[in-house]
């Protein structure tokens, strides 16, 4: 399975913060936001990853992340000229995906929870598609999944004025290779975008969509607003300081998944100088 991180968009809900910088490069406590979704794909064991960015932000992402080789990965980059919807990612990434399965994660989404890595890896060999549902107070901001009395998903609607449930669909999706053809058939919505909900509905209509409800032990943040960005920062700060373990540390994940050796981990720790992040990597390497 390959992975795509969609890190485009204009981030207007965060203006003026994002006028000059991509929101996915903003700090969430002690690391760039993009580290968190990247660590999610790496936790799943995915090493070939495509970053889709705006034209003017791509150079900054390349400067930050490089080609992925130091992490034992392979990073590619592509451009989304306009925010034409999430489903367009599979059209842009058609050649990158090739004949493989693909996971898509949004660049401004943060996930955390016990057993999350195992859950991710269980999706690698899927047939069809797999998404998640998470209870929220403001479902009208998201794609919303409706369940019947047997807890089976029966519809998915994008940003409905009157949501049929409180279950939002977080920005993490797993698909088989059919997604490329399905994406071509998604028609722009009234908002003028190729909605990911329309794509998921296609899989649902074919009886090939798995929807798993995230448990209480798992947390999800969509950091697209100032309030949610602040909430995520505070959450990461509290968890890390109490547990003395980092969330979204891509070098640590690379080592845990066997992408790199201990010697490489030690070498990478020097990249961050005297920062708290660099000191964490040094202590980690000593403890192994």
From TrEMBL:
The keyword Metal-binding applies. Keywords: Magnesium, Metal-binding, Nucleotidyltransferase, Transferase. The keyword Nucleotidyltransferase applies. Residues 2-236 form the Nucleotidyl transferase domain. Its cofactor is Mg(2+). It comes from the Bacteria. It holds the Pfam family NTP_transferase. Its EC number is 2.7.7.24. It catalyses: dTTP + alpha-D-glucose 1-phosphate + H(+) = dTDP-alpha-D-glucose + diphosphate. GO terms for molecular function: glucose-1-phosphate thymidylyltransferase activity; metal ion binding. Belongs to the glucose-1-phosphate thymidylyltransferase family. Catalyzes the formation of dTDP-glucose, from dTTP and glucose 1-phosphate, as well as its pyrophosphorolysis. This is Glucose-1-phosphate thymidylyltransferase. It comes from Christiangramia echinicola.
């Amino acid at each position: 399975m390959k992975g795509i991180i969609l890190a485009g968009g204009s981030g207007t809900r965060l203006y003026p913060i994002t006028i000059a910088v991509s929101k996915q490069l903003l700090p969430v406590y002690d690391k760039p936001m993009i580290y968190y979704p990247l660590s999610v794909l790496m936790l799943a064991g995915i090493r070939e990853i495509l970053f889709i960015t705006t034209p003017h932000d791509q150079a900054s992402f390349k400067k930050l992340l490089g080609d992925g080789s130091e992490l034992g990965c392979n990073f590619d980059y592509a451009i989304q000229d306009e925010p034409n919807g999430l489903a367009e990612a599979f059209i842009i990434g058609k050649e990158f995906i090739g004949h493989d399965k693909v996971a898509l994660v949004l660049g401004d989404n943060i996930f955390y929870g016990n057993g999350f890595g195992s859950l991710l890896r269980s999706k690698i060999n899927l047939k069809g598609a797999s998404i998640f549902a998470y209870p929220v107070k403001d479902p009208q901001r998201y794609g919303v999944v409706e369940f019947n009395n047997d807890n089976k998903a029966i519809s998915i609607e994008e940003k409905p004025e009157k949501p049929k449930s409180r279950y939002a669909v977080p920005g993490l999706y797993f698909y088989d290779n059919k997604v490329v053809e399905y994406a071509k058939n998604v028609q722009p919505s009234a908002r003028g975008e190729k909605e990911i909900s329309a794509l998921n509905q296609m899989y649902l209509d074919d009886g090939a969509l798995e929807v798993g409800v995230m448990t209480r032990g798992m947390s999800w943040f969509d950091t697209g607003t100032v309030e949610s960005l602040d909430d995520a920062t505070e959450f990461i700060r509290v968890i890390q300081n109490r547990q003395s373990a980092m969330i979204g540390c891509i070098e640590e994940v690379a080592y845990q998944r066997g992408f790199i050796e201990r010697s490489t981990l030690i070498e990478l720790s020097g990249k961050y100088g005297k920062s708290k992040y660099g000191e964490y990597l040094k202590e980690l390497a000593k403890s192994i």
